[in-house]
Amino acid sequence: MRLIKQSFERDGSGSVTLFPEEPEDMWYAFNLIRPKDLLRASAIRRVTTESTTGSTSSTRVQTTLTIRVASLDFDPQSSQLHVSGRIVEETKVAKVGQYHTLDLELQRNFTLEKDGDEAWDSVARGIIKEACDPVKSADVWAVVMQEGLANLAVLTGARTVLRQRVELSIPRKRGGRAGDHDKGLEKFFQTTLDTLLRQIDLNESKPILLASPGFTAASFHKFILDTATRTGNKALMAQKANLIVTHSSSGHLHSLNEVLQLPEVIARLKDTQYAREAKLMDSFMALLRTDDGRAWYGPKEIERAVEKGAVGRGGGVLLISNTLFRAQDVATRKRWVRLVDRVRDVEGGEVRTLSSEHESGKRLDGLGGIAAILTFPLEDLDDEEDTEAEIPPQAPNGNGVQI
Fold first, then answer.
1. Is 0.70 topped by the overall pTM?
2. Percent of the chain with pLDDT strictly greater than 90
């Protein structure tokens, strides 16, 4: 993502103009655009005209429209982002109040304007900074497989995307018919390799994980190198140093999480955001199992821990899912922004926003979307009564039933 222009006011309102350059940028845009924002982008509008004879004709006209955002639709597989809302600025082909869906495109500017108090908060500005960082974490390719099944996925700085699934029936080894099994396995490997080569750029040097139960990944690794030698494919042979063979419990995509916890994989991928997030979640879960009061999760529990100064300097880490910042309710979003700002700017703790598109983020979502590693142990945070909670009105007979 390229930052073209930005203008922020003291009250937190303002606008930015961004230039998306790659599919990953649409994910950042999805997390940045919120309902009630103003979005200006290129659009195709169908215009119907009527002639003097009463006949009508329809043409598609390219224009620039500004809408008040009502809803967003993001397709993670194709990285397409559709933003719908009502037009707020009249043009020659569109009137104020008409409904339109803007399809944000690569290599085309869009301008996002937020108004209201603290609209461009620290989280929103952080998304822009991360999206426009020229040294974002490198992509990692992964092939999680078992005999007859291969899942090809790409791990980026923000999410995991399943790019292709290969399924092929392989005859079992029976009696003297091992040859049928070997032929079927070779066909499966060839199909998987062909699919992988359609996805990756051999001119780039990025890690490629090959994971499976048993020896399937090791056999596929040998097949790749043998194919490169046989066909004289120097670019494929140059990927030898990037191929990482490891073990997984199955060939399904969810096994990728356990693969990223293996020490040898962590060592190879230590500079990627995915690996750092996975390691943090592992540390949190390990502390949670010890039950020593240093690991807590849940909105109320974490807010209480922050109030007590337990998520600060000296090892305090706040783990928060980016799904919490996509809340349509402004007050809910501000609640989490204030918490993040306090931990980072006041308490001096570390804040990690985990992507819900990564396995580590999904694990965090299962814990309520927020967790923390504390600088010192606290007990019974979940037993403390919320003094701010409203007490339900008592019925006249005193049985506590609300009427």
1. no
2. 51
